[in-house]
Amino acid sequence: MPGPVLIAPDKFKGSLTAPQVAEAVAAGLRRGRADVGVRLAPVADGGDGTVQAALASGYLPIPVRVAGPVGEPVDTEIAIHGDTAVVELASASGLALLEDDELAPLAASSEGTGEAILAALDAGARTVVLGVGGSASTDGGAGLLTVLGARVLDAAGNPLPPGGGPLARVATVDLSGLDPRLADTDFILASDVDNPLLGERGAAHVYGPQKGADPQQVRLLDEALGNWARAVLAAGGRDVAGQPGAGAAGGVGYGALAVLGARMRPGVDVILELIDFDQRLAGAGLVIIGEGALDEQTLHGKGPAGVAARAVEAGIPVVAIAGRCRLSAERLHEVGIRGAYALTDIEPDPQRCMANAASLLADLGERLAHDWL
Q1: Contacts of 289 (CB under 8 A, 6+ apart)
Q2: How far apart are CA 280 and CA 242, in angstroms?
Q3: Of 26, 65, 111, 136, which residue has the fewest beta carbons closer than 10 angstroms?
Q4: Is 168 in contact with 106 (CB distance < 8 Å)?
Q5: Parent domain of 342
Q6: Sign of torsion, CA 162 165 169 175?
Q7: Where are the transmembrane segments (predicted)?
Q8: CB contact at 8 A, 281 and 311
Q9: Using CA atoms, how far apart are residues 249 and 170, in angstroms rounded to an integer?
Q10: Is the domain of 187 the same as that of 261?
């Protein structure tokens, strides 16, 4: 081997975090070849696991208790390094926090993410990376902005309750009470979603059903988000409803772009910069990427694709480890991935794969050491 192995996986959803995946693969590599040099660089794409990736690269955790998507207390954390903080919507306002019978498509809120942003400001952050993805709500970011000091009012001047449904009655948005620190804070919206806020490709139509919305509720939410966007524009917000990414996280992307002045960037690019990925890549002889399901979606803005692109550009061979691989060898080669190893190759039962993922990943790591080192 001309250099150490860089292990840079994303999470195996429902099974292991990205740092846990990296550790398991590293253990297998060392079992296969004891003298191998290993670097770990777990990654994410802006969704769940974003804070974990930052913490694994040396950011410090700050625990925060926030209101979950339907108001229940949720213990989460932000990551901070200097004056840069990483806030992850999925761990504060995420769909995964709710059971199927708890879904509340009209009432779920992004308030908890706003509380996490306040915690970041309190910790001295002047750059906030907001990782969005996996949202339980379709509230256009109204809950988040309310926590930060905005007022969302009906025609009688009364505050609206949380959720996207009540935005059908929004008459006025007052942004004069926003936390003054926001004006001096740089917000980076880390997302792989390019949907606008409204319409057939918008937040309600595309993502509402997975949050429990039936067709009638989808239409209601889309109309409510239109009301919300008109009220925000009248209050001095930016005209960004049609911008790619405005529909991210049930419209939290819109709230961040229109009111917080956020800049949207591909989530994986943001994370790779946060963890100084290029420095970790330098001198590596092999890069191992991975995630739970390696499929065509992986190749469009997901963490593994971003890592692979950087490695290929640097002329470093790339191999993948996954729970299951749905890409042909030819398709993998097209994007510079020289081989793929799947848990289902050695354990056909998906439930056993998830339950025993760490030991199976170590076995694949050992096999990979024999094949590539």
Answers
A1: 8, 9, 10, 303, 304, 307, 308, 311, 318, 319, 320, 321, 337
A2: 37
A3: 65
A4: no
A5: 5-43+275-372
A6: positive
A7: none
A8: yes
A9: 20
A10: yes
- Write down the number of H helices and E strands in the chain: 15, 13
Which tokens go with 363? 């076995």
Could you give the C-alpha distances from 133 to 49, 115, 305, in angstroms and in order?
10, 17, 17
Q: Of 268, 283, 312, which marks where a domain is finished?
A: 268
Are 359 and 245 members of one domain? no
Left if phi > 0, otherwise alpha if psi is -120 to 50, otherwise beta: which for 32? alpha
Do both 55 and 36 map to the same domain?
A: no
Is the CB of residue 290 less than 8 Å from the CB of residue 311?
A: no
Question: Does residue 228 share a domain with residue 147?
Answer: yes
Query: To which residue do tokens 């990551």 refer?
Result: 79
Would the pTM count as exceeding 0.85?
yes
Whether 76 and 196 map to the same domain: the answer is yes
Give me the number of domains the chain comprises. Answer: 2
Q: How many other β-carbons are positioned within 10 Å of the β-carbon of residue 280?
A: 18
Burial 191-220 (b: 16+ CB within 10 A, else e): bbbbbbbbbeebbbbbbbeebbbeeebbeb
**Same domain, yes or no, for 18 and 127?**
no
- Average pLDDT across each block of 10 residues of the chain; the chain has 373 residues. List them in order: 87 91 96 94 90 93 98 97 97 95 97 98 98 95 98 97 98 98 97 93 97 97 98 98 96 98 94 92 96 88 89 96 93 92 92 93 95 92
CATH number, residue 29: 3.40.50.10350
